[in-house]
Amino acid sequence: MNYLRLEIICWSCLLIAMAVSTEAASVWKLPTAQMVYEDLEKCRQESQEEDAATLRCLVKKLGLWTDESGYNARRIAKIFAGHNQMEELMLVVEHCNRMEQDTSHLDDWAFLAYRCATSGQFGHWVKDFMSQKEVER
C-alpha cells in the first residue's frame, strides 16, 4: 500500500513538473502593431466581419484571452508598461472582465469587457498603439 502511495506521489510530481516546463516553454511575446493588423485581417475573414467575434478571435490569437478566464490583465499591462500604470490598468481590465463575464456568450463577453476597459485613458493608449502601424506604412 505504501509503495502505491509513493508511486502516485512520484507520478503527481512528474506531471506537475511537466506542466510547469510546458508553460515555461510556451513563452508569450509582446505583440507589435504589425502582428495585430495581420491577425486582425485573418480574424475578420474567419468571423465574417462580425465585430464581437472578430475581437475575440484577435485577442485569442495574441494570447490576451482565454475562454475560461477572459482577458489576461497582466499581459495587457505589459504591452502598455511604458505608461507606468500597470497596476491600475490591470485593475481596470480585471474589473471589466468580472463585470461582463458571460461564459455562455463568449464573443459578447470579450466585446463588452473590451468596451468597458477602453472607455477611459486605456482606450487612448490602444489607439496610439495601433497608430504605430499607420506611421510605418
TrEMBL record:
Protein name according to UniProt: Odorant-binding protein 99d
Keyword Lyase: no
SUPFAM superfamilies cross-referenced by the UniProt entry: Insect pheromone/odorant-binding proteins (SSF47565)
InterPro entries: PBP/GOBP (IPR006170), PBP_GOBP_sf (IPR036728)
This protein's record includes keyword Signal: yes
The entry's keywords: Signal
CDD domains the UniProt entry points to: PBP_GOBP
Molecular function GO terms recorded: odorant binding
Species this protein is from: Drosophila melanogaster (Fruit fly)
Signal peptide: 1-24
